[in-house]
Amino acid sequence: MKGALAVRQQRKFWKWVVLGTMLVMGVYYLSGLPVTQREALLQPDEPVTQTTPVKNPAHRPKATPTAAIVRDVSLSQTYYYHFKRNLPLPGRRAFRAAIATYNQTGSVHLIQGKAPAQANRITLRAYHKRMPKRANYRELGEGGPAIIRETSFWHVATWNHGTASMNADYPVSMTRAVAVHELGHALGLAHSRSPRSVMYPYKQHRVHLTHRDRAGLENIYQ
After folding, report:
1. Chain-wide mean pLDDT for the chain?
2. 141 within 8 A of 204, measured Cβ to Cβ
3. Cα dihedral sign for 174, 145, 213, 101?
4. For the chain, how far is it from start to end, CA to CA, in angstroms?
5. pTM for this entry
6. pLDDT score, position 6
7. Helix (H) or strand (E) holding 154
8. Is 6 exposed, middle or buried (0-12, 13-18, 19+ CB in 10 A)?
9. What pLDDT, on the 0 to 100 scale, is given for residue 31?
10. Both 20 and 100 in a single domain?
11. Are residues 102 and 3 both part of a single domain?
12. Which residue range forms the structural domain that includes residue 5?
C-alpha cells in the first residue's frame, strides 16, 4: 500500500511540474509577441483646417508626447535602418536628410545596414493609398514603433522594429518634412498639438526639431 501511495504522489508531483513548465513557457511566449502602433501624417485639402491653435499656454506640453507603447520601455539609442525596394529615390533622399536631423540630436544613432539579433531597426518604405474623392485630406505617410519583448528567467529585453512609410500615390509625400515626421513616429514620438512641431499631424513643411521635439526624444532615450 505504501508503495502504491508513493507512486501516486510521485505522479502527482510530476504532473504539477509539467503544468508549471507549460505555464511558464506560455508566459514567455506571449511576452515576446510584438506590439505595434501606427500613426499617419495628413495634408488637408482645405487650408482652413490645417491648424488648431492651443489658446491656453498652460495646457501646452513641455515635451512632444511619447507613443503609448514606448512609455516606460527601455530602448537602446542605436538603430539600424534599411530601405525597401519599393521606395523611390526622392523618398530615400528625404529619409537620409531626416536621419541626419535625428542623428544630430545625440539622443539616437541611426546606422544603415542589417540589424543584428535583438537590436533596434527601422524599415523605410513606400505604400499606396488613394483617398476617397469626398475626403478633405490626403494621407501622406504613416509610421510607428513595434516593440518586441523577450522575457527570460534572468531579465527582460526590449527592442523596436519600427517602420516609416510614404504614400507613393501622392508625389508630394516624398519630402523631408514627411520623412522627419514619420521617422519620429518610428522612434516613438506621438503627435503634437503644436503647429511648430515636426510631429504636428497636418503637414506644415517643418523639417527642424523644436526644443520640445528634442525633449520628447530625451524622454524615450535617457
Report:
1. 82
2. no
3. negative
4. 65
5. 0.77
6. 59
7. none
8. exposed
9. 46
10. no
11. no
12. 1-31
